[in-house]
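I'm stuck. Please check this protein.
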Amino acid sequence: MIRALSFFTNLFPVWVVICCAIALVDPAAFTWVNRTLIIWGLGIIMLGMGITLSLDDFKRVLVMPKSVATGLAAQFILMPLCAWSIAYLMDLPVPYKVGLILVSCCPGGTASNVVAYLARANVALSVLMTMCSTTAAVVLTPLLTGWLAGQYVPVDGWQLFLSMIKIVLLPVVLGVTLHHLFPRAVKFVLPIGPLIAVIVIALICASIIGSNAAAVRESGLKLLGAVILLHSAAFVSGYAFARIFGFGPQVCRTVSIEVGMQNSGLATVLARSHFANPLTAIPCAISAVTHSVIGSILAAIWRLRAIDNQKETNGDKIPD
């Protein structure tokens, strides 16, 4: 049973691509997933992330502060700057510029943990980075979005901050609480959590694509090119950034995956909730497809490459 759940979960990019493709042809198949359902769905994902965490996980950050700090710096410096540069240089329409910047300012997605496992990266570090970036995003996402996208449209940073509290922080805190109060129930639920997250993200992305199918078809190639370029740059720069600080292949892979794979579901919800133009959410939905496909391809390449375990171990033991 667990193997079957893992198998279907690992096909995450396939489900997202299939659902979004169907949404382009038959929008009504997914437009029933309205704004309220999207918000609740994302809250469930964040709750699912929370129940996988314990207080000991937060303490583990103290054990590897340099690698976690490197990942966070890359996440909230490299990714937003890449998005702003690409949006400006490609002269995207304003809603797409804002959407691209918004998704880049969001934390790493939970799917990155699955990809880290497949890529033989440092899964524990991946989980820690996702946890830390999600926590930091409560403050950094509104600040960075306001700074980089505020020149294009008015950005209400305070309302974004309140949404981050409600959609991200509270569900995660509730999940951590449930982890400690009801460990047996949590242990029973954990195996199905990732698959539920995959289903919800696929539905959210397909709903956004379906609701704006005509606009996606009209400017699809240019926008798709911008999103592909953004995530490709993020994966490459994340790896290079960690390498500059002297980390070995395993940590570099982990940072690359965390920087390249965003919480596109969160970006989609924020776009729908705080920006008047519905087209703002389209780059966020396309982002989910793009980073999943690129991440899965990288995971396959890295998994197939033979690695000298001794060299990797020595390379990753960097004093903090």
About this structure: The chain has 16 helices and no strands.
